[in-house]
């Protein structure tokens, strides 16, 4: 009996062992199959292109220019000797002056993927859009390029609850758009410090993207509608002089929304001292010392804007004026901007209203950072805030018809942007509207 029982038990264990081996092999086959499937799912590395090169073909090193860095030091740190560095600099100088590398600007080095891993290209980016390539693998050559730029048109609506900046901030919109609306488009039409709760606006604007991924900011505003105190204000962007690149904003009736002169040469600041021919100063024993300008206090480095179109007649440093720029606007008017830390306009240069011509500073006789804004009429300094200044040059009659035709589709687009929870009627959707200017 024991022998038979042992034989039966042995057979039983043998059968269990065989079953175990079969199960193990099946599981092993399944796991192998799963691994094969996972391997099949792995995609090849994505091809990356930038600066006109396939970066997958190189070892890529990115960095920024640091204090004390020079072109030679950067290449020497990366296995390039000075004899070759000298030749590279000589060959590249007609395209780019390597001494003009700016601290904080990014650069990229592309290395070979062989055993030597030597650098073959140096790429410097002076701005988000521009880059310089210096190629020194076999032959040395350099060139400048711009990254591809994409412009995306967008629309926006908003209802004022406190201020326009807070309204736009709540929607994650760039403050540049606020400045364009307040300082460029409606500066002379709407007082943005006195907006009413419930005022509302619609904007068609363009955002700029570099390489399709880097946000380059608000490019321009195509059209806007502002409803202030229940009164509508349309604004349409239109080029009046393509040669000089003069762009203005006009109403639906072709009226210019600007005046000939901006109220202030700085976007944000306060008047710290007004034009006063009877001013007395304690420091000078309360003697009468006329102040023939208007002082706008602002931090050093604040951009100073030309208050009107014109030609720069002086850009120099002299006595108590410090660094200053003077602009002739026509046969009647001139403006002058004193105490700059830096001048950014040259004699003979034509500047447009709003162009930055310098930066606020403390050069010359000044007790604090500000720009002294002087206004000349027929060769005599006057107070611009007491003058009845002319409006901006009206649109030429020969342009008016072209303008009205140009804004038809834009106004239709603007009128069909609806405030929530408004719902357009079929009639509103089907009928573009346009007010014709009186002939």
Q: What can you tell me about this protein's structure?
A:
- With 439 residues, the chain is an alpha+beta fold.
- The protein has helices at 2-41, 71-76, 82-92, 164-170, 175-185, 397-415, 426-430, and strands spanning 49-50, 53-54, 59-64, 106-111, 119-124, 130-135, 141-146, 149-159, 200-210, 214-228, 231-241, 246-250, 270-273, 280-281, 287-288, 294-297, 303-305, 310-318, 322-328, 333-343, 350-351, 356-360, 370-377, 380-382.
- Strands 13, 16, 17, 18, 19, 20, 21, 22, 23 and 24 form a ten-stranded antiparallel β-sheet that branches. A five-stranded antiparallel β-sheet has the order 3-4-5-6-7, with helices on one face.
- Strand 4 and strand 5 form a beta hairpin.
- The N and C termini lie far apart (126 Å).
């Amino acid at each position: 009996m024991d022998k038979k029982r042992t034989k039966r038990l042995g057979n039983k264990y043998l059968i269990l062992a065989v079953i175990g081996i079969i199960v193990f092999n099946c599981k092993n086959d399944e796991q192998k199959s799963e691994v094969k499937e996972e391997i099949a799912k792995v995609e090849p590395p994505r091809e990356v292109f930038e600066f006109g090169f396939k970066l997958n073909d190189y070892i890529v090193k990115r960095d920024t220019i640091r204090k004390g860095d020079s072109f030679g030091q950067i290449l020497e740190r990366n296995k390039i000797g000075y004899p070759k560095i000298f030749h590279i600099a000589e060959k590249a100088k007609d395209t780019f002056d390597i001494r003009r590398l700016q601290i904080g600007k990014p650069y990229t080095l592309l290395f070979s993927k062989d055993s030597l891993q030597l650098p073959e290209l140096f790429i410097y980016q002076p701005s988000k859009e521009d880059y310089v390539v210096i190629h020194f693998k076999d032959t040395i050559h350099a060139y400048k390029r711009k990254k591809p730029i994409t412009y995306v048109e967008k629309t926006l609506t908003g209802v004022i609850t406190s201020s326009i900046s807070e309204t736009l901030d709540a929607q994650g919109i760039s403050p540049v758009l606020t400045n364009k609306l307040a300082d460029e488009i409606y500066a002379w039409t709407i007082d943005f410090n006195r907006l009413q709760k419930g005022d509302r606006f619609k904007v068609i604007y363009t955002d700029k993207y570099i390489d399709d991924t880097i946000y380059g900011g608000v490019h321009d505003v195509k059209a806007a509608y502002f409803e202030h105190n229940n009164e509508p204000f349309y604004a349409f962007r239109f080029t009046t002089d393509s040669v000089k690149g003069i762009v203005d904003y006009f109403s639906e009736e072709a009226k210019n929304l600007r005046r000939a002169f901006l109220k202030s040469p700085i976007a944000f600041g306060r008047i710290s001292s007004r034009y006063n021919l009877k001013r007395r100063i304690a420091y000078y024993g309360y003697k009468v010392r006329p102040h023939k300008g208007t002082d706008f206090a602002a931090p050093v480095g604040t951009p100073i804007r030309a208050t009107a179109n014109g030609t720069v007649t002086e850009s120099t440093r002299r006595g108590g004026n410090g660094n200053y720029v003077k602009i002739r606007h026509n046969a009647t008017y001139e403006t002058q901007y004193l105490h700059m830390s830096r001048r950014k306009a040259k004699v003979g240069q034509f500047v447009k209203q709003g162009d930055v011509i310098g930066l606020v500073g403390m050069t010359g006789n000044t007790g604090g950072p500000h720009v002294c804004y002087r206004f000349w009429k027929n060769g005599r300094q006057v107070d611009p805030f007491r003058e009845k200044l002319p409006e901006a040059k009206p649109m030429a009659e020969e342009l008016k018809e072209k303008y009205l035709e140009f804004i038809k589709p834009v106004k239709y687009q603007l009128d069909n942007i609806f405030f929530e929870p408004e719902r357009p009627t079929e009639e509103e959707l089907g009928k573009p509207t346009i007010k014709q200017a009186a002939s």
